[in-house]
């Protein structure tokens, strides 16, 4: 009997919860819109996206086509795209358009996903959930092949990292409010992974440092 397994096909739900400290994989077809809701107002979502083919299957392993913040900054000539802007892949292909943002529009495209080493640097002993682990767990559970030793830089929705005088960066609490949302329209078929960031040491999820659930809808 052949051990060959057919490539998975991704079908997403219409609405759901992104649990605090955890990741959620969501398939989004070209032309569909994904609404991400900051339910409690202070939660950062690390947003990753990976291209799917016309049958909602993974691209060949040698084809790396994923959401890229450096290409997005270059493509928009802005640190963070505003409504009407685009998010680009590492192949410089538009993946999403931002069509609505009810928050003040403060998001981050500079900071990498938190990972185990980040928490060790912050003094954590033992395991601590991280966005990098949430990403790779969600991809593996979805059957999407992607190297575990590489984590693309995410779009950090609602993360407030002001660039200060002299170029210094700071981590401060979000300026988003309860119920704020963004709507992103897919320009190609994608598997999205959203991680409700587990950071509870710095104030990126508010000075209360308590990660919380967020919600999503397909609209």
Summarize this structure as a short list of keywords or feature phrases.
219 residues; six-stranded antiparallel sheet; alpha+beta; four-stranded antiparallel sheet; globular; 3 helices
Distance between the termini: 43 Å
Number of helices, where a helix is a run of at least 4 consecutive DSSP H or I residues: 3
Low-confidence residue ranges: 1-9
Oligomer: single chain
Q: From the alpha-carbon coordinates, what is the Rg to the nearest angstrom?
A: 17 Å
Name the helix and strand elements from N-terminus to C-terminus, one letter apiece: EEEEHEEHHEEEE
Main sheet properties? 6 strands, antiparallel
The percent range for helix content is 10-25%
Strands, total number: 10
C-alpha geometry: globular
The helix-and-strand class reads alpha+beta
Strand order of the largest sheet: 1-10-3-8-6-5
Mean pLDDT: 92
What is the beta-strand fraction? 25-35%
In short:
This protein has 219 residues and is α+β, with helices and mostly antiparallel strands. Helix content is 12%, strand content 26%.
Give an overview of the whole structure.
- It is globular, with a radius of gyration of 17 Å.
- The protein contains 3 helices and 10 strands; from the N terminus they run ββββαββααββββ.
- With 219 residues, it is α+β, with helices and mostly antiparallel strands.
- The longest helix is centred in the middle third of the chain and has 12 residues, at 131-142.
């Amino acid at each position: 009997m052949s051990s060959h397994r057919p490539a998975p096909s991704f079908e997403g739900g219409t609405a759901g919860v992104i649990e605090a400290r955890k990741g959620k994989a969501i398939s989004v077809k070209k032309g569909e819109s994904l609404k991400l809701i900051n339910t409690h107002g202070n939660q950062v979502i690390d947003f990753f996206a990976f291209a799917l083919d016309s049958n909602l299957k993974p691209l060949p392993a040698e084809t790396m086509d994923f959401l890229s913040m450096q290409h997005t900054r270059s493509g928009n000539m802005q640190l963070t795209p505003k409504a009407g802007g685009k998010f680009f892949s590492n192949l410089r292909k538009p993946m999403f358009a931002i069509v609505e943002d009810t928050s003040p529009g403060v998001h981050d495209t500079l900071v990498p996903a938190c990972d185990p080493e980040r928490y060790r640097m912050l003094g954590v002993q033992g395991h601590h959930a991280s966005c990098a682990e949430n990403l790779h767990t969600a991809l593996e559970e979805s059957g999407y092949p992607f190297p575990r030793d590489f984590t693309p830089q995410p779009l950090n929705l609602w993360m407030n990292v002001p660039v200060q005088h002299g170029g210094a960066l700071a981590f401060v609490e979000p300026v988003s409010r309860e119920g704020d949302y963004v709507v992103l329209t897919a320009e190609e078929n994608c598997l999205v992974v959203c991680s409700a960031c587990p950071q509870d040491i710095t104030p990126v999820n508010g000075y209360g440092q308590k990660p919380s659930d967020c919600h999503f809808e397909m609209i």
